[in-house]
Amino acid sequence: MAFGTQDDTDDVMNEINMTPLVDVMLVLLIIFIITVPVMKHSVDIDLPRASSTPQEPPPQAVRLSVDAQGRYFWNEQEVGDAALPSRLAAAAAADPQPELHLRGDKDARYERVAQALAAAQRAGLRKIGFVTEPQTP
């Protein structure tokens, strides 16, 4: 009794088995059918409207300096104590109002810097900043 003969050789399959491929494609189709409606849900928001008009350039900052002798300098030009309130009032009346950059010398009396700060506040300036230099190690 012989189990195999020369005529019973395995034939080479010339066709691809399509069943697993069709199964995978059906699973992917079901996944896409389920996920597409979920992806279309969005949150309704009311976005702000933007205008394309050019913005006005910011006004020049005013540099008020107090040197070691207590003298005031308005944009690098010396200003007397009597003229300082009128210049600060003119700057406060400008539209848009400029920023005041107050620079005090480290050897200046604090009283002079405080007087300049008080005069700027009385004039109505709202944007006042102190200018300092970074400390070197």
Structural summary, described in words:
By secondary structure, the chain is an alpha/beta fold. The chain has a domain at 62-130: Nucleotidyltransferase, domain 5 (2-Layer Sandwich), CATH 3.30.420. Helix content is 34%, strand content 14%. The chain has helices at 19-40, 84-93, 110-123; strands at 62-66, 72-74, 77-79, 100-104, 128-130. It has a five-stranded mixed β-sheet with strand order 3-2-1-4-5, with helices on one face. A hairpin with a 2-residue loop joins β2 (72-74) and β3 (77-79). α2 crosses α3. It is elongated and about 110 Å long. The termini are far apart. The model has no long low-confidence stretch (mean pLDDT 86).
Spatial strand order of the main sheet: 3-2-1-4-5
User: What structural class do the secondary elements suggest?
Assistant: alpha/beta
**Oligomeric nature of the chains:** single chain
What is the count of DSSP helices, taking H or I runs of 4+ residues? 3
CATH topology-level name of the domain at 62-130? Nucleotidyltransferase, domain 5
Just give the CATH class of the domain at 62-130. Alpha Beta
Describe the main β-sheet briefly.
5 strands, mixed
State the distance separating the first and last CA atoms: 102 Å
Shape: elongated
Number of strands: 5
List low-pLDDT spans: none
Compute the CA-based radius of gyration. 41 Å
Percentage of residues in helical conformation:
25-40%
Which percent band covers the strand fraction?
Answer: 5-15%
Spell the H/E element sequence. Answer: HEEEHEHE
CATH architecture of the domain at 62-130: 2-Layer Sandwich
Output mean pLDDT.
86
